[in-house]
Design brief:
This protein is an alpha/beta fold and 571 residues long. Helices cover 53% and strands 7% of the residues.
Amino acid sequence: MAMQGSKSECEKSWSWLAKEIGRQADEKLMDNYATKKGRKDLIEEFVALQHVVSSINYACAMYIVILHTAFKKKEIRLQLPRSPRPYGNQIDHLNRLVNDSDINCHDQLRMNRCTFMLLCGLVRSVGLSDSKYVVLEEQAVLRLHGLLLKKLEPVTANCTNNRWSCFQNCLGALDGTYVKVLAPAIDKPRYRTRKGEIATNVLGVCSQDMQFIYVLPGWGGSASDSRVLRDVVSRPNGLKVPTSHYYLVDAGYTNGEGFLAPYRGQRYHLSTWREAGAPTTPQEFFNMRHSSACNIIERCFGLLKMRWAILRTYSYFPIKTQFRIITACCLLHNLIQCEMPMDLDDDENEEMNPPPPATELGDEMIDVVEASNRWSEWRTALATQMFNEWQASRGMDDTGTTSSRKKGKPRRFWNHHEELFLIITMKDITASNPRWKLDNNQFRAGFYNECEKKILRAFPGTNLRATPHIDSKIKLWRKQYSTFQDMLKISGFGWDDEQKMVLVDSDDVWQNYVRRVPDAKGMQNRPFLFYEDWLILFGKDRATSELVEDPINAVAAMEKKDTNATTEEGE
């Protein structure tokens, strides 16, 4: 029993020892495993950190390289001169236009080659160069405003132009016009006109020869013309109006010193005079002469927009650039008006056409627009003087009736309704029976008598007769029509369908033509409402019915052509 107890204790001791040894071995193994795993994690973290540092170093290196390259390019750009041909394609295109012909040059640049070369010389003469923000091409024309804007030339006492002779000391006419622009959305309300368009109100001032004296774009379309004018005269570099001189303005402006407006409540526009007959009061006659002369600014605006299509619609440039384009177009308009006469000999020999001498206008300028009794009284005196002179020239007394002529026969004046009825009658008679019109564009005997019969039925009690009234009127119309036909074949003339009058590029073109055709005197700036009717009555009918066919005839002709082609193939 004792042996068994000792054995049992010994087994327990060995069992405990084995467990203890195993436990210690396991702890040692676990410590070794943990140490190895920690080292592995530390190595992995170190490798990852090395990758991050390498990436940061690479990014910094690339950033430094990019900055170094950019600074190098900027340094080279600042040190080296600009490329001598930054716009090579555009310059080559211009060279082709200039070296080709005046026709192509005018179609593309709106000026002939001589005028374009003159513009290039002016750009070089002022010594322009690129600025920090504006290149030469953008500032060239604007910097020429001192050379291209028209200098002040008042109307003198010996003026031979019938439209301006009664407005002594007048400098020209001014008015506003709308030019469409593309404005930012936040600014559109102040650019919106009465008609709902987004446009700028451009104030233009022109001389008697349709050249701009001053131009100011930039006002919103919602601004009134009078407000723009008040701003212009108050600007340091604005419109200068010397005392004792003035501009013609329409009824939308104040009639004040320096700005002569028409009478309100009286007939004014030229169309009203054509429809209602001659004026009967000094105020009406003043308005008629005023409208005839002040119309020059409307024609100037019309010619400007006809030349430059960019002014007929908005463009996608910045808003300030759009305003500068308007000014540049006005300056180029002046250059074209001044340097493109019809007669090339006059252009080559400048000594024959010296510029007019400068006129001393005084140092005192008008800097406010306001009405005054003194200015209104002066306008009344001027209107009365003009009306009396007109009556005396027509042989009329103070009552407005025509006095007897030297031969004792009263002169018969046609009114607009009588002229219109005669035109309609002539067209109706020739349309009802084409034989009334001969091949030489003359009318058969008895044609005037037919017109007389219809006029007597339409105007009972009238004294209009076939001879001499209808005969002389038709002869005058035919003569004017022939002059128009000859005029429109010459370069420098055009036709305005809205105003029904001839457009002339410059006064030099008109004076040259009047010297050659004296009968044309008095036809400039005068509306001719019946010109299109004259084309029918006095023109040669070149229209034929050779190619006229209705749909049925067209189908029949095509079928006939197919049948003939099939027959020819069968043969």
